[in-house]
Write a structure and sequence with these properties.
Helix content: 40-55%
Strand order of the largest sheet: 2-1-3-4-5
Distance between the termini: 15 Å
Radius of gyration: 19 Å
Length: about 240
């Protein structure tokens, strides 16, 4: 990981970190301050929601990223993110969860979180994934007013023409593969649930009852056509672009 580039990607980002455990909040906020210059901490879900609204009132903009615990008093993680998505539907969210809180993650994935990490946090993995996410935020900001998404040095997605190109050569995709790529790349980095993908991709095929095997077959073919697309499987939850 290139720490110079990480600092470049994070230098203008504002982070809201929500955690009710005092010791972990202190420890983890110190790590975050090594990465992000502007970190606001909140002690529970209600405190976080109030600070989220206050930040917008004071700056006329929203936090670039929210990192939140799940089980908290005064709004747990599910209630907090649900309330925030009603304010800003495409808010970037990372969830921190204990290993026994898997059941809480499912409704959060359905809401549209972008990433989650299991406690105790593996800091090296966390840094690598934060690097990827901040890279994405940085380039999304650059690409916000243009129709081309640069996936890597050779692979690009034309949002307007719905075309995937590698080294300026168009990769031939089926209609359903186009819908899948468009959904994955234009969902602001969120985890796309299997149900959502099935509903969107096969919406017009009324005589078909698609299931996970149809989706896996589509992804298998797409990975062969475009290995650089890096489709990440989030076990038991869905898919996202890595």
């Amino acid at each position: 990981m290139n720490y110079g580039l990480l600092k470049k990607y994070t230098k203008n980002l504002n982070i809201l970190f929500v955690e009710d455990d005092t010791d972990f909040r202190k420890e983890f906020s110190e790590l975050l301050l090594d990465i992000f210059p502007k970190v606001t901490t909140a002690v529970d879900g209600l405190d976080a929601l109030n600070k989220y609204k206050e930040f917008y009132e004071n700056t006329n903009k929203y936090y670039d990223l929210i990192i939140s615990d799940i089980k908290m008093p005064n709004y747990d993680g599910v209630e907090l993110i649900d309330a925030i998505y009603k304010i800003k539907e495409d808010q970037l969210v990372i969830i921190l969860s204990a290993r026994n809180e898997f059941n809480y993650l499912l409704p959060l994935v359905n809401l549209g979180i972008h990433q989650f990490f299991t406690k105790p946090i593996d800091y090296s993995t966390f840094l690598e994934d934060i690097y990827k996410l901040c890279n994405q935020i940085y380039h999304n900001n650059l690409n916000s007013n243009i129709d081309i998404i640069k996936i890597n040095e050779s692979l690009v997605w034309d949002k307007k023409k719905k075309k995937l190109q590698e080294n300026d050569k168009v990769i031939e995709l089926t209609k359903n593969e186009i819908i899948f790529v468009d959904t994955l790349l234009n969902d602001n980095g969120k985890i796309c649930t299997v149900d959502k993908l099935l509903d969107i991709i096969w919406a017009d095929e009324y005589d078909l009852n698609p299931d996970i095997t149809h989706l896996k077959s589509l992804i298998y073919r797409l990975r062969k056509k475009a290995p650089g697309l890096l489709i990440k499987n989030i076990y038991g939850m869905g898919y996202m672009h890595d």
